[in-house]
Design goal:
Blueprint lengths: L18 H13 L1 H8 L13 H36 L15 H10 L24 H12 L8 H23 L9 H14 L10 H13 L2 H6 L2 H9 L2 E2 L4 E2 L4 H12 L6 E6 L11 E6 L7 E4 L4 E4 L4 H14 L7 H16 L5 H6 L5 E4 H7 L5 H8 L10 E4 L2 H19 L5 H14 L5 H13 L9 H12 L1 H12 L2 H19 L6 H13 L1 E3 L9 H7 L10 H22 L11 E3 L2 E3 L16 H20 L9 H17 L12 H27 L11 H15 L12 H8 L30
Parallel strand pairs: 4-8, 9-11
Antiparallel strand pairs: 1-2, 3-4, 5-6, 7-8, 10-11
Helix pairs in contact: 7-20, 8-20, 11-16, 11-18, 12-13, 12-19, 13-18, 20-25, 22-26, 22-28, 26-28, 26-29, 27-28
């Protein structure tokens, strides 16, 4: 069989060319001389067919295979490099995919808080308007919020808004019903309550590994005796009578050894933490602007009065609230009845008490007024104070309060309302002279009544009921406090140093350190990218942030277990004598004040917000408790809850007046407010209403905290590209849900917000890759201004 040859210049391989085919080819070329001549004159362009052999063909095939294999390898290598680059560039590639569930006991408890949380991406038109959804704040909060927003402008209640509000009420009702059906209405407690619950778990833990007579064992024994509600009922008022006898009696009972006024006052201040005429505590001078100052001072202020006081803002005068005098007179008589005092003396002694209180109240003033009149932090020596207010033996009283510390006449104290102190001294002197002849001694009775108020928690329920009823009358009553909460507070009062160390040891692990440093690093990045009003403001702020270091403890608060046991070595706790134990705690409270004055630092483990101590920002261990933080939680929860709270605290602590020094708060908050109005009000009215400077700053703080916490979480995720989840939520979804949950339930600043915290997620998702889709509502007017709200530091 013969094969035709192409004349297009493409080489063709022929296995066995024969002579007959050559003859035919030659004959054909003779017939077409022009073609033959062309082929002869271009020898270089046409290959010689007779040189093509099987070896050349095999080389050709091998070359093609090599080229093809190299192409495949290059393609695979390129895809691998691209995938690796993308993975290292964006660790969030699987952020919306399912994550393995966290099954620790702490996670199982926490998952209940997220099981009925609304999905912000299921109803974007309504989600950010809800009053924090099911399990969050009540509808009352939503109504209050709406009222507060409407007061920002004078638009009126038109039909369109009325219909919209009815729709919101319906959605809230549906959400609440959904939560009830699932049996899940868990709400985060406030941070103080969460800390107290954690302390309760510590005090109720088994004594395994805790030897007898250690500080921790004594604290647990005190808590147990407090929880025994039957013990005070058995002894009644007898313990108080015994104590009065030791103090020399009092005129009301007819048994009194005429003890000296200042001697009794020093005894009550030093041993029983009772301050009838003025309060004494320890703290720094907040008027000092030196960050590295660690100096603590004795502070003297108005006392905590048992009766309400009215303030006239026009005349700048105070007076006792007359409407509560008669109820107090009645409660005073009830106390005396329980103490077996003859009713014939009720009116005399209770009347004198009220009269003395009324005189003292005249020189009091609210904190706002004292701030405006610069009546706070007045430095004065004890000797100078003695000269100005001679009725009080200041040195003896302060020495008793801070024993065994050496207190001298030359020591400085800080007085917060010197006019009151002067008036109090004059009143005490006058009453001593007027009533000395009568033998009634209302000053002594006044002090004993204050001691009674201090000891009521350790007396039987009848005393507590009288005080509670009077609180209800004054409108100061809260829901009945659970006994465990009262007992935790009393234990904390005396064993604060011990509990601070226990909380720190159990809750500030390496996960806490990482979160703290990630948040602060993200915080510094955010501030460095801000637009400042002038270079001076920028330099001052950035230097301030760089000069301080976050820390989980102070240098002076690193006591060993041996040192802790030594502090409580002289404390003797009795198993079934709560009154005696309570007196021990009052003595411990006095020692705690002395340590604070001498060491210059507080027991930060029991704090719930950051504070400055020298060049350190102390992030207290009390912040790292459930449900806001747990080492076994998904990091999305820890960073979304505690991370965002910590960021808000830092912004409020270090940048209290940021709106006056930077442009961002005003521009970004107004942008968010404008967008909020665009989707909730008549679009034509957008931009007509502005937020007050304080609300502008708070909107910016809340949104910035969300950004800071998110950046910190992404940093952590990049470092450890894996996480677990709760309730089947993905990483990013769980982070956003955690932020909304904690902002609704436990954020003390949220009351200053003009809209719900969920709207901040709407803004974040409008131009961010962490959300699967923007939280936009297609049937609403949403202009493009929202993109302007996005910070350059957004992930």
């Amino acid at each position: 069989m013969t094969k035709d040859r192409s004349v297009t210049g493409t080489p063709i391989c022929v296995k066995n060319p024969d002579r007959n085919s050559d003859k035919r080819e030659k004959k054909k070329m003779d017939e077409n001389q022009s073609v033959f001549q062309e082929m002869v004159t271009m020898p270089e362009e046409q290959p010689q067919f007779d040189e093509l052999n099987p070896v050349a063909c095999n080389k050709c095939r091998k070359l093609l295979l090599v080229v093809f294999a190299f192409s495949l390898f290059a393609t695979a290598l390129g895809l691998g490099i691209y995938y690796h680059h993308q993975k290292s560039k964006d660790p969030w590639m699987s952020q919306w995919k399912s994550a393995p569930p966290c099954l620790s006991p702490a996670c199982l408890r926490a998952s209940e808080s997220f099981s009925v949380a609304l999905d912000p991406f299921s109803r974007p038109c309504d989600y950010y308007l809800l009053a924090c959804g099911a399990g969050g704040s009540s509808a009352n909060r939503g109504r209050k919020r709406e009222k507060g927003v409407s007061s920002e402008y004078s638009g009126g209640q038109d039909k369109k808004r009325a219909v919209r509000r009815e729709r919101l009420v319906e959605i809230r009702r549906e959400t609440d019903v959904q939560g009830i059906n699932y049996g899940q209405q868990d709400k985060f407690p406030d941070r103080q309550t969460a800390l107290l619950k954690t302390i309760k778990e510590v005090l109720e833990a088994p004594d395994e590994g805790v030897s007898r007579n250690t500080a921790e064992q004594k604290a647990k024994k005190f808590f147990k005796s407090c929880m025994d509600s039957e013990s005070p009922e058995k002894v009644g008022s007898e313990p108080f009578f015994t104590l009065l006898h030791q103090l020399g009696g009092w005129p009301v009972s007819g048994v009194w050894n005429l003890t000296d006024f200042n001697t009794t006052l020093a005894l009550l201040m030093g041993q029983y933490s009772t301050f009838p005429f003025f309060s004494v505590y320890v703290g720094p001078d907040s008027s000092e602007h030196q960050i590295d100052s660690n100096q603590y001072y004795i502070q003297i202020d108005e006392p905590h009065f048992q009766l309400p006081i009215d303030w006239n803002s026009r005349t700048h005068k105070s007076k006792a609230s007359s409407q509560y005098l008669r109820p107090f007179l009645s409660s005073c008589g009830q106390y005396l009845t329980l103490l077996d005092i003859p009713s014939s003396s009720f009116r005399t002694h209770c009347g004198l008490y009220i009269s003395l209180f009324t005189n003292l109240a005249l020189a009091t003033s609210p904190l706002s007024y004292r701030l405006s009149q610069q009546l706070l932090y007045n430095r004065i020596t004890i000797q100078e104070l003695q000269t100005l207010a001679p009725a009080i033996d200041w040195l003896a009283c302060l020495q008793a309060t801070f024993q065994p510390l050496p207190i001298n006449h030359s020591d400085l104290v800080l007085v917060h309302n010197l006019p009151y102190i002067l008036h109090m001294s004059q009143t005490v002197s006058r009453w001593q002279v007027q009533h000395e002849i009568m033998g009634t001694s209302p000053l002594h009775t006044y002090m004993i009544f204050n001691l009674l108020q201090t000891l009521i928690p350790a007396l039987d329920s009848r005393f507590n009921e009288i005080r509670r009823n009077f609180s209800i009358t004054t409108g100061d009553a809260q829901e009945d406090t659970p006994r465990w909460l009262k007992c935790v507070q009393q234990t904390k009062r005396g064993f604060d140093t011990l509990l601070s160390h226990v909380i720190k040891e159990r809750h500030t692990q390496k996960e806490a350190e990482e979160l703290m440093h990630d948040i602060y690093s993200s915080f510094k990045i955010k501030l460095a990218d801000m637009s400042w009003r002038d270079m001076n403001s920028s330099g001052v702020m950035l230097n301030k942030i760089k000069s301080v270091t976050p820390s989980l403890s102070t240098k002076t608060d690193a006591l060993s277990h041996t040192e802790l046991n030594q502090i409580y070595a002289e404390v003797f706790i009795r198993e079934e004598d709560y009154f005696s134990n309570y007196l021990e705690v009052l003595g411990l409270e006095q020692k705690s004040r002395s340590r604070l004055l001498s060491h210059g630092t507080q027991t930060e483990g029991l704090s719930i917000t950051p504070f400055l101590s020298g060049n350190d920002i102390i992030i207290p261990a009390g912040m790292f408790v459930s449900p806001f933080f747990h080492p076994s939680y998904p990091r999305a929860v820890n960073y979304g809850t505690l991370g965002s709270l910590m960021a808000k605290d830092l912004l409020h602590l270090l940048l209290p007046d940021i709106h006056t020094q930077a442009k961002n708060p005003e521009l970004e908050s107004e942008c968010m407010w404008s967008h909020y109005l665009s989707v909730t009000e008549d679009p034509g009215r957008v931009g007509a209403f502005s937020l007050s400077p304080s609300k502008q700053q708070e909107v910016w703080v809340q949104y910035t905290a969300l950004q800071v916490a998110l950046r910190a979480y992404i940093t952590s995720f990049t470092r450890h590209p894996a996480d677990s989840s709760l309730s089947g939520l993905s990483y990013a979804h769980l982070f956003l849900s955690s932020f909304i949950k904690v902002s609704c339930d436990a954020d003390s600043y949220s009351e200053f917000m003009p809209f719900e915290p969920s709207f901040l997620v709407t803004v974040l998702c409008s131009n961010s890759s962490i959300c699967p889709k923007p939280l936009t509502c297609l049937n609403k007017n949403q202009n493009s201004t929202l993109e302007m709200c996005q910070s350059r530091t957004l992930p």
